[in-house]
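Deviations from the work plan: none for this task. Representative record:
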Amino acid sequence: GENVEQHPSTLSVQEGDSAVIKCTYSDSASNYFPWYKQELGKRPQLIIDIRSNVGEKKDQRIAVTLNKTAKHFSLHITETQPEDSAVYFCAASNGMNSGYSTLTFGKGTMLLVSP
Amino acid sequence: EAGVAQSPRYKIIEKRQSVAFWCNPISGHATLYWYQQILGQGPKLLIQFQNNGVVDDSQLPKDRFSAERLKGVDSTLKIQPAKLEDSAVYLCASSLLWGRGETQYFGPGTRLLVL
């Protein structure tokens, strides 16, 4: 099955700095890669996603890049703010021939943004 | 649009007892997922339903866990008997359709503590 590795496990930055979180996946058939943000005690919420026919996607301060050859994708947050502090999860969709897909999540990165 | 609803939000039981969790997905969503999230880890899929049929339960410990989705809407997840290692947050998610690239929306989760 799919295996998703996520690094780093914790990341501390100063407000205004950039943050980068990296993930690798094992199944070359995976073609959908969402990122979720989970604040303490709350539900995971989708912040951005990318499909394998695209190399990069941006949404204001957030961007995701995908390297299919290396099976590697990354989340980039620019001009970080204290409210960006949360746990971020990457995931890869391991679609089966039957037509349904299964998300496999990384272990998460705790991002701490200091004022 | 109302989100995914779950109850109860918290549950404390002793080992070997049984427990049940309830999930109401977003109206019209065909696919429903149950995840287990152990502290410090990413969500792990337990079971996936398309309408009222199971499409993936490969990671469900079937000797103690069971789930059903009657009429293709609400779902219940049961643990009987519970073990200490079942302490986790149980997240329900739903998506409009199935297949690769379908956004999953998560509920607030049920936090289970087994003593």
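The longest strand of chain A covers residues 86-93.
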